[in-house]
Structures are given as structure tokens and as C-alpha cells.
Design a protein that fits this description.
The chain is an alpha+beta fold. About 35% of the residues lie in helices and about 15% in strands. It folds into two domains: about 1-25 and about 75-125 and about 280-294, no CATH class; about 130-260, Nucleotidyltransferase, domain 5, CATH 3.30.420. The protein has nine helices and ten strands. It starts with 9 loop residues before the first helix and ends with a helix.
Length: about 290
């Protein structure tokens, strides 16, 4: 399923991208902005003036007013809501920033800024449960990979980061992805017990950091020796699903971002997109409803 199959056709949403009134009405109807407010000063219910896009306290001695967009992603932005929704559509569709620059007429820095805002939004919208996978009888493949390669650039050495990940063998292919400083048994135990539900059947390679799973009452553990074969000919155990997942993760993470402090946002984006694989647009609108800004 490609990105466009996860998105409504552009023409069906075109009115939202061309009319500020349509965009604001859409945001209000879908609770991406507050549909009602109480006055923060006196507690009286406020009245919405949609034309002025403000809430005003109904108490004569107060008359306090707040922007309709207060605490939403759309508050105090220089470009209109309809353009922000259009950029969100581009980002959700997997459009490269260079193409978005051409289509929108906005600067490269503006596009990069909004793409970052959208990544932060969906990451913030996720709960602890969203990063837990597996369950009773569910096979979970676990592996580690190095994001980024060591290179020399004007005398500076750049180190990549290690990422531990797991993927379910289910139609949803839910994943977890975590940056780690080391891959010892203690680290692996902490990550796996936090992100893999009890009762799961775990498939790994022979890395010694996984040996503790054999003594765990929480999981079943099966291994494949990659120094001999990729798929165990007797048990059928393999980790090809997580290996394929790494290809997707790296494809969607720019090389310049494969460093500590920057790679995490792309990992969260990948997890979120995998969870919302059947409709990214609806998932994005739900994130707008869920996340409130100070």
C-alpha cells in the first residue's frame, strides 16, 4: 500500500487548501480547535465570534477574549490555516521538501520548519501503549542496526547511533524503535520488557544481549544463527521482517539526521505512520484534536 492509498485524493480536500473559511470550518467541526471555552478569568462560558475568530466572555464586567486558535497548532502562524493543512497533506503523502517548495512557493526553511512541526505533533500524540507491540502468541522479531556511518568531514568524526527495534508478524506490522547507548543484556532487558507485551514469541539472532530471554517466564525465545544462514532450515526461524523494516526506516530518515538528538523524531514518525497505515489523514486530524499547546 503506497502513501497515496493511505490518503484521500487531493481534489476531495482541495477546498480546504484554497479557502481559509473552509479550512477553519473544517478544523472547528473536527475539534482541531476548541469548540467551547470557559473564561480563564471568571469561569463564565465564552461566546464564539467565528467572523472575528475569537472567543469572548459573556460577562459584561469581564469581556475577556481569546483567539479561536489558542492552544492549537494554528496559533500565531504567519501563513493561513488552509496553507498549513496543504503542507500537512504534502508531508503525510511523503512528498520531498524540495517538491513542496516548488508546489507551494514557500521557502525551503519554511517547509522544513513545518515538516518538523508535523513530526513533533504526531510524536506528542502517541501514548505509551502506542510503542508497545506483541501479545499472547504473537511473534515479534527483534534486531539492532547502526544508523549513520562513521565519516570524516573537515577533521570532524561523526558517529552514528545504535537503534534497537522490534516488529510484529501481524497484518499491522506494529513496531517499536529505540536509540541505545549500548547493547548489553541490561539494556536489552529494559527495552524489551517495556515495549514487548508478555506472552509474545520473540525471534532474534544469537547476540548475547538476548540470552536472558531464555530464562524469562514472560516470553518464548527462538534464535537464528546468521553466521550460518538467514533462515533456520529446521525451525524456520528468521528475522527477515525486521531486516526489511530497517530498510524502510533508513529510507525515510535523511543521512544528516542519523545522529543522536535528531534521529529520534524520524523514528517516532515511522512508528506513527505504521500505526496509521490505513489512513494517515484521519490519524493526523486525530493528533490535532489530541495535542494542546501551551
Amino acid at each position: 500500500m503506497d502513501n497515496m492509498k493511505r490518503m484521500p485524493l487531493y481534489d476531495t480536500l482541495k477546498p480546504l487548501f484554497e479557502s481559509e473559511e473552509e479550512a477553519i470550518s473544517f478544523l472547528y467541526q473536527h475539534s482541531a480547535v476548541y469548540k467551547e471555552r470557559d473564561c480563564p478569568r471568571c469561569g463564565r462560558k465564552m461566546t464564539l465570534n467565528m467572523e472575528k475568530r475569537t472567543y469572548r466572555c459573556s460577562r459584561d464586567t469581564c469581556k475577556y477574549h481569546i483567539s479561536l486558535f489558542k492552544n492549537s497548532l494554528f496559533y500565531r502562524h504567519r501563513i493561513p490555516c488552509c496553507r498549513i493543512l496543504q503542507l500537512a497533506y504534502y508531508w503525510l503523502s511523503g512528498m520531498k521538501s524540495t517538491t513542496a517548495v516548488t508546489l507551494s512557493g514557500l521557502t525551503k526553511n519554511t517547509i522544513a520548519s513545518y515538516y518538523q512541526i508535523f513530526r513533533d505533533l504526531v510524536a506528542t500524540s502517541m501514548d505509551v501503549e502506542d510503542c508497545q507491540i506483541g501479545g499472547e502468541g504473537v511473534i515479534v522479531e527483534i534486531d539492532e542496526t547502526k544508523m549513520g556511518k562513521r565519516k570524516y568531514n573537515r577533521g570532524h568524526r561523526v558517529e552514528g547511533v545504535w537503534v534497537v527495534g522490534g516488529v510484529e508478524r501481524t497484518p499491522e506490522r506494529r513496531v517499536f524503535l529505540v536509540v541505545v547507548e549500548n547493547r548489553n543484556a541490561e539494556t536489552m532487558r529494559d527495552i524489551i520488557t517495556r515495549h514487548v507485551r508478555g506472552g509474545s514469541i520473540i525471534y532474534t539472532d544469537m547476540w548475547r544481549g538476548y540470552n536472558w530471554i531464555d530464562d524469562s517466564d514472560r516470553y518464548q525465545h527462538h534464535t537464528v544463527n546468521h553466521s550460518i544462514h538467514f533462515r533456520d532450515p529446521q525451525t524456520g526461524v528468521h528475522t527477515n521482517t525486521i531486516e526489511g523494516t530497517w530498510n524502510g526506516v533508513k529510507l525515510n530518515c535523511p543521512v544528516r539526521s542519523r545522529v543522536e538528538g535528531r534521529v529520534e523524531e524520524h523514528l517516532f514518525e515511522f512508528i506513527w505512520r505504521r500505526q496509521q497505515r490505513y489512513n494517515h489523514w484521519i490519524g493526523f486530524i486525530n493528533a490535532l484534536k489530541k495535542v494542546h499547546y501551551e
